[in-house]
Amino acid sequence: MISFVWAEDKNHVIGVDGHLPWKLPNDMKRFKDVTTNHPIVMGRKTFESFPNGPLPKRLNIVISRNPNYQVPEGVVLISNREQLKDVVKPDDEVMVIGGAGIFRMFEDIVDRLYLTRINHEFVGDTKMVDLDYRQFKLIEKKEGIMDKENVYPYTFETYQKIN
Ligand SMILES: NC(=O)c1ccc[n+]([C@@H]2O[C@H](COP(=O)([O-])OP(=O)(O)OC[C@H]3O[C@@H](n4cnc5c(N)ncnc54)[C@H](OP(=O)(O)O)[C@@H]3O)[C@@H](O)[C@H]2O)c1
């Protein structure tokens, strides 16, 4: 099963200058809860955006067109969608975590969406793909808690593909 995990602003912005446009620690916690113990699949640029290297307790799978791209030990490099099935188990929930081109690569086979919707406008250079939400059912929605560390209004939403 393929899932998407991401956060976007009011205008579907997801990134700026190779990093996230916002600081929202509660979303980082949600991301960790949702993805830990699952394989995560990401584009080469998203992988390079991690300040401390590969994320622990998750198989990190990086997609690049460069077959010689060097990844640290334990990280798996693939160059297309077909190679994914060789590196995950059939019953894994595979967490696709971006960026834009990687969401596009999987949008026709995604089953579940874990979206953090941030109700604010940010300057950005990377946007989420235009998903057809008519094909999905909202199965969970939680208002995000705001405090001095989490200053933007946000909601956590989970959608399941309608079969
Ligand atoms: N808000 C969020 O939830 C979220 C999530 C993820 C990322 N982001 C942000 O988004 C930005 C990065 O996203 P991005 O879209 O610019 O880059 P990205 O998808 O992370 O990485 C792009 C790279 O992936 C590889 N790639 C892309 N399409 C491919 C294909 N069809 N076949 C093989 N390889 C392919 C290429 O690597 P090579 O150049 O090595 O060939 C390409 O340069 C950053 O600002 C990041 O912080 C935000």
Q: Which features does this protein show?
A:
eight-stranded mixed β-sheet; two-stranded antiparallel ribbon; 30% strand; single chain; alpha/beta; 163 residues; 3 helices; Dihydrofolate Reductase, subunit A; binds NADP nicotinamide-adenine-dinucleotide phosphate; 14% helix
Note down, in words, how this protein is organized.
The structure is a single chain. The chain is of the alpha/beta class. The protein has a single domain, classed as Dihydrofolate Reductase, subunit A, CATH 3.40.430. Helix content is 14%, strand content 30%. It is built from three helices and ten strands, in the order ββαβαβββαββββ. The strands form two sheets. Strands 5-4-3-6-1-7-10-9 form an eight-stranded mixed beta sheet. A two-stranded antiparallel ribbon has the order 2-8. The longest helix has 11 residues. The model has no long low-confidence stretch (mean pLDDT 98). NADP nicotinamide-adenine-dinucleotide phosphate binds next to strand 1, strand 2, strand 3, helix 2 and helix 3. The site of NADP nicotinamide-adenine-dinucleotide phosphate (NAP) has 29 residues, from strand 1, strand 2, strand 3, helix 2 and helix 3. Pathway: Cofactor biosynthesis; tetrahydrofolate biosynthesis; 5,6,7,8-tetrahydrofolate from 7,8-dihydrofolate: step 1/1. This is Dihydrofolate reductase. Key enzyme in folate metabolism. Catalyzes an essential reaction for de novo glycine and purine synthesis, and for DNA precursor synthesis. It comes from Companilactobacillus farciminis.
